[in-house]
Write a structure and sequence with these properties.
It contains nine helices and 15 strands. By secondary structure, the chain is of the alpha+beta class. The structure holds adenosine-5'-diphosphate and magnesium ion (MG).
């Protein structure tokens, strides 16, 4: 029987969606693009309490999450509810809503790194300006600058580096929660900014690149240049551990080396893009993802036997 799977995105098909659809189609899966905005909890219409366009009669055999649109707290909660509800109905969701929540929320990600013993820079997440200032003062006294990040940010947007003598941002600027982290010097000199992005699928690091930033924020969206990088064993091992700490099937892991060469994980992206990485690696990431999604998560044990 043909599998009928959903790719959740608001950018259909988009660069990533096109590649995924081709890879899934080549494995005999029929793909429907779905926007979470169009889904609803509905006990009167749809299937088993959920209305998902294109899946009115039968829930999907699997759901690949490529994007969750931003919105009000209520809108985002409803969109995540839909993914949680799919899991409750036994539908494989890739990545699962729990992993997406943990990775979207940088505070929770940092906690889980600490909990799992994954090396990460000293970090403090607080709604107390006094506690935020105390962290900043301790770090600056020890000779470190401090990075402030939006709790739910991505693509390097809204990051600030507080040099000694600078105060914490206003509460309004960070929605009442300060995410503060020790700044790690990553290059031999100022201007030599870089970090690593490692792509992990099913507990295996499959590709890596170095991103060389136009500023200390190395994201491709901020002008970072992608360079091919070897999957050094320590890089691969740590990326896999970081991914396991948040429970993601697949992820893009950001890492830096401090000036002593020690690797630290900055974050795990639970809805990772791979366009930049694909431009510098020979492996086909969409093919790998489609393989793992279908064979390990979607295929029912009874079907897999035959
Ligand atoms: N503690 C830090 N020390 C040095 N550079 C950092 C630090 N945190 C972030 N950066 C730089 O900023 C980039 C974006 O930070 P990240 O935590 O990955 O947030 P985003 O979700 O916006 O990508 C990183 O890829 C890295 O280049
Ligand atoms: Mg990042």
């Amino acid at each position: 029987m043909t599998l009928h799977v959903a790719i959740v995105t608001d950018d259909a098909p988009g660069w990533h969606g096109s590649r995924l659809r081709r890879a899934l189609g080549a494995r005999n899966a029929r793909v429907q693009f779905v926007s979470l905005r169009a889904c609803r909890i509905d006990l009167t219409r749809g299937c088993r309490g959920l209305f998902i366009p294109g899946f009115e009669k039968r829930v999907p055999d699997g759901v690949f999450v490529r994007g969750i649109p931003a919105g009000t707290l209520e809108q985002v909660v409803l969109r995540l509810d839909v993914l949680h509800a799919l899991r409750e109905l036994g539908v494989p969701v890739y990545n699962d809503a729990r992993a997406i929540e943990r990775t979207v929320d940088k505070g929770m990600t940092s906690f889980l790194f600490g909990h799992a013993g994954v090396p990460t820079p000293p970090t403090c997440v607080t709604e107390s300006p006094a506690r935020a200032r105390a962290f900043l003062l301790r770090q600056t006294a020890a000779g470190h600058a401090v990075v402030v990040k939006p709790l739910f940010g991505s693509q390097g947007v809204g990051l600030r580096c507080l040099e000694p003598g600078t105060d914490i941002p206003d509460a309004a600027e960070c929605n009442g929660v300060w995410y503060l982290q020790q700044y790690i010097e990553t290059g031999a000199h100022d201007g030599d900014w870089h970090d690593w992005r490692v792509f992990v699928i099913a507990g295996v690091a499959v590709a890596a690149m170095v991103r060389r930033g136009a500023t200390w924020v190395n994201n491709v969206a901020q002008g970072g240049r992608c360079e091919a990088a070897a999957l050094e064993p320590d890089l691969a091992r740590l990326a896999v551990r970081a991914c396991a700490a948040v429970g993601a099937d697949h992820a893009g892991v950001d890492l830096v080396r401090d000036r002593d060469g020690r690797l630290l994980v900055l974050e795990v992206n639970g809805v990772p893009a791979w366009k930049g990485l694909q431009s510098v690696t020979r492996i086909d990431i969409a093919e790998r993802l489609a393989d793992d999604f279908l064979s390990r998560r979607v295929a029912k044990p009874t079907e897999a036997v035959g």
